[in-house]
Amino acid sequence: MADLDIPDDVYNWLVSYFNGHSHCTRYAGESSALLEISAGIIQRSGIGPASYVVNSSDLAALRPGNFVCKYADGTYIIIPSDNVDSRSEELANVDTWAQTNNLTLNRAKSQEIVFTDKRRKPRIQQPPPLANISRVEVIKILGVTVTNTLSVREHVSCVISSCSQSVHALRVFRSHGMTAASVHIIFKSVVVAKLVYAASSWWGFATADDRNRLQAVIHRGIRSGLCEQHHKTVQEQVDEADDKLFTNIKYNKQHVLHSILPSTINRKYNLRPRPHNFKLTTRHSSITDCDFITRMIFKDVY
User: Fold this and answer.
1) Which of 49, 71, 165, 294 has the smallest CB count inside 10 Å?
2) pTM summary value
3) Nearby residues of 281 by Cβ (< 8 Å), 6 or more positions away
């Protein structure tokens, strides 16, 4: 924090905030002695995510083409297939960085996932596993479950299962006298919010069956009286979220995704309304077509 150009009073507040914390363990009615915490970020605190971003700002990939993505307390190393030999090198770099910054890389909680295109033939040879790092076929990234074939079917199943529990709770509340208006509000703010959570990032990878299963949750809510009769479909809500996010990315140069937008075209004439003035990117494969930016670039352009 001291390396940032921030006012002295803000820095002094941060110093005061991070000092003087202690920890104890309570079990079976007994509490241990307090032990001072010399380093760490308090979970679920407002300053926590920003503190992690500052603390990890000097952590970068070693090999060109590799990327280190950081959000809140999560760190992801993205390595393309042509740099697969750099995996151990990148992991050792994170280990060294952690030790320098009074941290420890927990290999037991670290996972490796190898994304492949199941439609490609012949199948690509899998790289050998890393030492003390488990390789998985399914991973949850910031609340979105993704498989190694970039399928979101399992994410949809998890969301529907979670929604079923919320629907059951709503039925219990209604049977105990909760008004229909209150039930509708909770259904929209809890159940529907789960259905479309971060949908812009994964909607392009969802199959028609995945989308129908999500929509079926709203249909059941309407039939059982938990949801308004004329509630927007999942597709309509995702479209609105996509347009809102894309507009924010277009006009906010500070947005984290603004830098990956294609270059613009300066037209001297405009014969018809256009959704944007970006150049149409090359469509490499069906997988890249599912990406949010590619979907929005080609949306309504023909």
Assistant:
1) 165
2) 0.81
3) 262, 293, 294, 297
